[in-house]
User: Fold Deoxyuridine 5'-triphosphate nucleotidohydrolase from Halostagnicola larsenii XH-48.
Amino acid sequence: MFRSGAFVADHVSPATDEQIQPNGVDLTLEIVFEQLEPGRITKDGKSVGERVARPLEELEEKMPQTYYLPEGAYVARYGERIEIPDGHIGFVYPRSSLMRNSCMLNTAVWDAGYEGRGEGLLQVHHDIEIQRGARIAQLVLVEADHEEAYDGSYQGENLEGR
Ligand SMILES: O=c1ccn([C@H]2C[C@H](O)[C@@H](COP(=O)(O)OP(=O)(O)OP(=O)(O)O)O2)c(=O)[nH]1
Assistant:
């Protein structure tokens, strides 16, 4: 069963009233990264390639704290701390307005027991402007059986100073 937005909100922080949807909680854009070097996926490991945070628009005539993204692929970090409770699995979908603007957020499985500020692949198929802190995605939680809880390399990621 998919849980209600109110239930999901108990596992996302911060979660303002505006973010709480009937069936999930909206996630905001915190940082956009551009990958500089190849990563590596092997049979017994992986590494994430070097990346750099994309600068925010600083020209006065444009909206401050805004990413002006040309066509390309970026890694987007969400602004919220997410915790996937026992007995659940999480899925993140793009906000439909992103998709309607020819952009897409590709995501993977969010495991029971994971805690952190996760990331997604932001695909920009047509130039777009996204303000930092704007809602770009939605997390839903589904009840799911599992034997062990998440204990991988991304556990507790990006929580410094939070
Ligand atoms: O779109 C997603 C999907 C998942 N996650 C988080 C939650 C998930 O529990 C964690 C690890 O994902 P996964 O298990 O797919 O990572 P992996 O590549 O298998 O690495 P590891 O084995 O170290 O976990 O990353 C994200 O940040 N973004």
Notes: The chain has one domain: 5-35+51-135. The chain has two helices and 15 strands. The helical segments are 5-9, 96-100. The pocket of deoxyuridine-5'-triphosphate is lined by residues 46, 92, 107-111, 114, 118-120, 150, 152-154 (CB under 6 Å).
